[in-house]
Structure formats: C-alpha cells, structure tokens
Design a protein that fits this description.
The protein is 74% helix and 0% strand. With 322 residues, it is mainly α. The protein has one domain. It is globular, with a radius of gyration of 20 Å.
Length: 322
Amino acid sequence: MLSRSAQGLYWMGRYLERAEFLCRLLRLQAEALVDRPIREIHAGWARIYDGISREPPGGSLDLVTSDDFTLADSYTLADDLTFERANPDSVWSCFAQGRENARQMRHCISEELWTSLNLAYLRIQKLGIQDIWRTSPEGFYAETAAEMNRFSGVAGATMYRDEGWRFMQLGGFIERAQLSTALFLSQLSSDSKAGEHTDADWTSLLRFYHALEAYNRIYSVEVHPGQVLDLLATDPLLPDSLCRSLDRAASDLASIGPGPNAKASGAARRLAGRMSALIHYDWPDREDREELLLQVRQYGLELHHLVTAAYFDYAVEDFPGS
C-alpha cells in the first residue's frame, strides 16, 4: 500500500484512540466534581495532564481550598482538554484530525465507517464548553466515548482485513499502550509525592478500564495498588490491558510484514516483541514496576519512530527495486 495511505490510517487510529481515552478520563473527572473532596478533584486533573504530558493553562495546578474556585478552575481545564482548538491534544483537535485523516483515506476505509465518523464530527464541531457545562458534561463525554466505540465496531464489521486495516489498528494500539503507561506512571508519581495511596484514585483507574468487577472477582473489594497495577498491566483477558495492547501491536506488525526500509521494520517487530515480553515475563519477577513502566514508555516512543522510518518516511533508495 502507498506510504501516504498507510500513514494516514495509522494516524487516524492514533487520534481517535487518544480522543476516546480523554473522553473516558474526563467523564470520570466530571462525575467527581459533584461530591468528591477537593483533593481528589485536584489529583484527577493533575493525572490527566501528566498522562498526556501537557502543561495546564497557567503552567501549574495548585491545590486550593475554595469550592467555588475549584469549580471555576475545572471549567477552564475542561475547556482546554475538550474544545480548545489551539491544544493539539484536546478531544476536539484529536477528533478533527482523525476525521481529516479518514477524509483523505476514504478510498481505504468503508463507507459505513466514514458516515459514522462524519456524523459524529458534525455533532461536536460547533459545540463549546458552555454548551455542555450547563446541563451534563459527563453525559457529553459518555456519549462521545460511546461514539468512538461504535467506530471500532463499525470498522470491525465492515473493513477489509488488508494492510490498511492493520495500520489503523497498529496506530490505535501503540497510542493506547503509550497513554496507559503514562497514566500508570502519573498515578505512581502522585502516590510517591504524597507518601501514601488513596483508594479512590486507584478505584477510579479500575473504573476507567472497566475492570472494577474483574478486580473484585479476582482479588476482593479491598483496593491494593500493586494488585490494581498487576491487573491493568498483565491480564490478557482485560480488553484495554497494557499487555493486550502490546500483543495486538506486535501481531499487527507481524501481519503487515517487512516495509521498504527492511532494517527498520525488522527492528520494529523485535522491539514490539521485547515490550510484550517485559510485561508477560519480566513484570512478575520485578519489584521496580515504575522503572519497568518507564522502560516500556521509552520503547513505545522508539517503536513509533521505527514504524515511521520503516513504512512512511523511508529514503527512496530503501524501496525495493530503486
């Protein structure tokens, strides 16, 4: 397939995954504004910004004791993360960029997927934070995340399983792995700074990954950070677990096969396998989970660059027959 088409589908997968990820986090955060302590609200915003490696408006998040100020501040932060056009990581920006990639690659995706994406884009393109804040912001985030899930369902039901499908899936799984790793590291860093853990923070992580019932069934109702992290990182039966994302990324890379830059594509496949092995085989025997996650995050960045070099931005002399 043409490198331009492969790159467009890859980034479409990444942008839509990032938008869905943010919507789920923001839904939990909006729900917390109703009755949770100020400390939890502040920790939630800090975790989101740390997870996407972005500075909040004003440059820092200060914990204050005024309920009124916290709600006003939350309005500004939610706007920055949801509708701010100048923020390339906002829900609106990610969705718009994902839809634009889909528009350019319409010949590579199904008609049903394009229609689904376009209708959702038309719904949110003219909205602002004031439109959702006065009624139910959590409802908007839940609806938008559900639309993202419908895209996956429509794509899975209608798209031909060729290289285009694989590149779109690969982008989504690499993005999910990177975001999950950053989210875990953010929570561990927050606990380290506070000198203790808060059950509510780890319970919200379980809810974010739709894993609360699975955790209660496997462990108990008592929340232990180490057990939560074990479940979210290593359980292959959990749809959004880190190990499942890495396994699927490695599988998609293997299915795509060598690229024009054979050296880079081979390195990418080996690195994807190494990342998966770290979670499957090294994780149970290591106590330094934070160090292991930092290693996985660094490998994730390297994997993206190798995929880019192998399939998208290769030199002309790398192409077979040139």
